[in-house]
């Protein structure tokens, strides 16, 4: 497994479902791509590559005031609003996303993502939260066909080929999960260059998306 500077992780809700991972070097060349089941496999791949940034497509924090997402727990959000600040801001911009709430259908993914982030943090690697759909809107515009349909995969491969021509030989092997992991890694690359907009409150998890050229990096 080659050295990588940016790893993108399209996390699934359960280790029983494969998680797509893509690694890029500093020049956006493909270092490797793979799918892993257990978190231990993901951590092992990160340790072998020692990346500068790990970009995870999943919520990495809870709304302020919550200690968990269990409806049986008495913890309550500090503000009477749905989800995290970053999610509400994306919605305001017309970018749909799952809200992190006690009724979230991705509760297991949130728990897994937070645990994985903490493990990666403890090993000294920088972790950022990304949302590939928001990255697609920022890079390619709002008219994006469904990634679950052949036209959507063709669209993604075409746009990714234009963005990273050096990856053209590999893209025919990329399904929509690997495309999302690649977009996550690319967002990590933009983060390292100070070319992202950090949306939300870092205290509850902020999402990094490609920034318009007139938006300064905080």
Task: Give me a quick take on this structure.
The protein has six helices and seven strands.
What does this structure look like?
The protein has 218 residues and is of the alpha/beta class. The chain has one domain (6-60, 112-209): Nucleotidyltransferase, domain 5 (2-Layer Sandwich), CATH 3.30.420.10. The protein is 34% helix and 16% strand. Strand 1 (6-10) and strand 2 (19-24) form a beta hairpin. The model is unreliable at 214-218 (pLDDT under 50).
CATH fold-level label: Nucleotidyltransferase, domain 5
> In what range is the share of β-strand residues?
15-25%
Largest sheet, order of strands side by side?
A: 3-2-1-4-5-7-6
In angstroms, what separates the terminal alpha carbons?
Answer: 34 Å
Q: What's the count of strands?
A: 7
User: How do the SSEs run, as a string of H and E?
Assistant: EEEHEHHEHHHEE
Helix content estimate: 25-40%
For the record, the count of structural domains works out to: 1
- The level 1 CATH classification is Alpha Beta
Topology:
Elements: E1 6-10, E2 19-24, E3 30-36, H1 39-49, E4 53-56, H2 85-92, H3 107-122, E5 126-130, H4 132-140, H5 150-163, H6 176-192, E6 196-199, E7 207-210
Parallel strand pairs: 1-4, 4-5, 5-7
Antiparallel strand pairs: 1-2, 2-3, 6-7
Quickly list its features:
disordered C terminus, Nucleotidyltransferase, domain 5, 7 strands, 7-stranded mixed β-sheet, single chain, 218 residues, globular, 6 helices, alpha/beta
């Amino acid at each position: 497994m080659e050295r990588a500077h940016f790893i993108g992780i399209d996390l699934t809700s359960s280790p029983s479902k494969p998680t797509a991972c893509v690694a890029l070097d500093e020049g956006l060349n493909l270092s490797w791509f793979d799918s892993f089941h257990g978190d231990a496999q993901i951590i092992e791949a990160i340790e072998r590559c020692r990346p500068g940034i790990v970009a995870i497509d999943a919520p990495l924090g809870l709304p302020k005031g919550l200690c968990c997402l269990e409806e049986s727990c008495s913890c309550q959000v500090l503000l009477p609003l749905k989800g995290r600040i970053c999610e509400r801001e994306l919605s305001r911009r017309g970018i749909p996303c799952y809200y992190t709430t006690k009724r979230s259908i991705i509760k297991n993914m949130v728990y897994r993502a937070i645990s994985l982030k903490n493990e990666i943090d403890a090993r000294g690697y920088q972790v950022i939260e990304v949302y590939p759909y928001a990255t697609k809107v920022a890079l390619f515009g709002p008219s994006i066909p469904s990634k679950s349909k052949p036209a959507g995969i063709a669209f993604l491969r075409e746009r990714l080929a234009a963005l990273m021509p050096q990856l053209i030989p590999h893209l025919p092997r990329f399904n929509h999960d690997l495309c999302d992991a690649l977009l996550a890694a690319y967002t990590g690359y933009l983060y390292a260059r100070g070319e992202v907009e950090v949306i939300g409150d870092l205290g509850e998890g902020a999402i990094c998306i490609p920034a318009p050229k007139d938006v300064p990096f905080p």
